[in-house]
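Schema walk-through. Below, the input block comes first and the output block second. Nothing else is stored per chain. Lengths vary across the set, and this one has 248 residues.
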Amino acid sequence: MRPFRPGMVPTLVVLMLLPVLIGLGVWQLGRAAEKRALLEVYAEREIAQPVAGERLLDEVDPAYRRVHLRGQFDAQHSLLLDSRMRDGHAGVELLQPFFDEPSQRWWLVNRGWLPWPDRRVPVAFDTPQQTLNLTAWVYIAPGASFLLRADAPDGDWPRLLNSIDAGHLWSQLARDGYAHELRLEPGPGSFRVDWPVVALGPEKHLGYAVQWFALALALIVLFLYFGWHQNNKKEKQHGSRHGSTRHV
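--- output ---
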């Protein structure tokens, strides 16, 4: 059997890259499991009856829970969540404060997606003035939320943002408000509300995991091939030189 001598440099490369590739694959498997769990929770809570706002305040795990509100929108403090795509078209999501009369608390309600074909023209939308009965569900974004950019100065409304933090908004407006965004269901005041529960489904993460594991396997195969092939090549070169010397 041929001796296996891959050399120092290939060995170091494999020792550095192989744990990284395997770790990325395992991480993607973990993300797939997390997404499956989120989808299961959403499916369970999607069919549950909506609760009143007061009850939602006491929930330890409010994600995806449905809530019933009765009150009015604040048309003066609108937020536009930028860079939201639907069917290949650019647009925004419109979020507005909503005062719920039974709970006497403010809620940040996402009314849905609006097209924005020409950024030189402000997004057109209207706000119902009458008292409304709304049904929405709690959306909690994975990871931390950051206000990345506001295209309008602090005194100007509506504000165009890349991401939204409800708690930051209530602090700016000096209001007692709920800390998470609510996503409106079809009904009064809603626009396009076909919300994706997760940006990437479990199958996507499984596909990425397969890719990382495949790269790890390819690295091992190349390492083994390089070790045996290079050693065999050196032996042939050595034998050729030795035979030439004897012939002379």
